[in-house]
User: Which sequence fits this backbone?
């Protein structure tokens, strides 16, 4: 008596599909998932970069507003160096602008401080600028500061580099500012318009961040500035 085949009329392909995906199908799915994962990663990075750029720009605007409030109270914008306003105070030239700016906007006189407290994680001392006990006392007394540190600190952007600040009277190229970061040293000079040949913000000040690449382009490249 002939045996009846249980798979009669069913192809081998149908049997394999009933058992699951073929190796080729699995590889195709993996490839698609890999592509989608890459696209999502790129998209997330782009969103994150855009958000960081907006934050940096917002922080520069807050520093601008603080400097303006200081000027309204004291008649001038914060100087490019604390040695300009505190006689006899000695400090190196590295990161002088941002060191001076954050100290002056934190003054507790004539309605100050003019800026909210700076987050500790964003304050650094890359140039190791340290005041003597006498100089620290003088600075604290004349500015009526709450801070109690001999270090002249810098306020850094989201990428870890100090912001650059230059008062308009120091725009001349002979007043190059040394910028010390954790990765090295560069020179900062006030930026000019290529079209007009004049300094940006000619009667106030310039502030900028090195931007995501961490390279000082003096307000060009991917630098984030107070004038654009």
Assistant:
């Amino acid at each position: 008596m002939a045996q009846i085949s249980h798979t009669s009329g069913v192809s081998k392909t149908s049997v394999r599909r009933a058992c699951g995906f073929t190796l080729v199908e699995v590889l195709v799915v993996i490839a698609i998932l890999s592509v989608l994962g890459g696209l999502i990663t790129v998209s997330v990075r782009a969103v994150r970069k855009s958000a960081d750029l907006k934050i940096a720009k917002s922080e520069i605007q807050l520093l601008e507003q603080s400097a303006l409030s200081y000027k309204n109270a004291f008649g001038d914008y914060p100087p490019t160096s604390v040695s300009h306003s505190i006689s006899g105070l000695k400090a190196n030239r590295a990161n002088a602008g941002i060191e001076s700016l954050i100290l002056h906007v934190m003054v507790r006189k004539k309605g100050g401080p003019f800026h909210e407290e700076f987050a500790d994680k964003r304050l650094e001392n890359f140039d190791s600028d340290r005041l003597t006990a006498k100089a620290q006392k003088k600075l604290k007394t004349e500015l009526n500061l709450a801070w109690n540190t001999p270090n002249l600190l810098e306020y850094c952007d989201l990428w870890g580099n100090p912001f650059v600040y230059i008062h308009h009277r120091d725009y001349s190229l002979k007043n190059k500012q040394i910028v010390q970061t954790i990765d090295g040293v560069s020179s900062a000079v006030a930026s000019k318009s290529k079209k007009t040949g004049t300094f940006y913000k000619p009667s106030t000040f310039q502030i900028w961040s090195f931007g995501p690449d961490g390279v000082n382009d003096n307000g060009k490249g991917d630098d984030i500035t107070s004038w654009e």
Summary: The chain is about 35% helix and 10% strand. Residues 55-225 form one domain. Residues 86 and 142 are 8 Å apart (CA to CA).
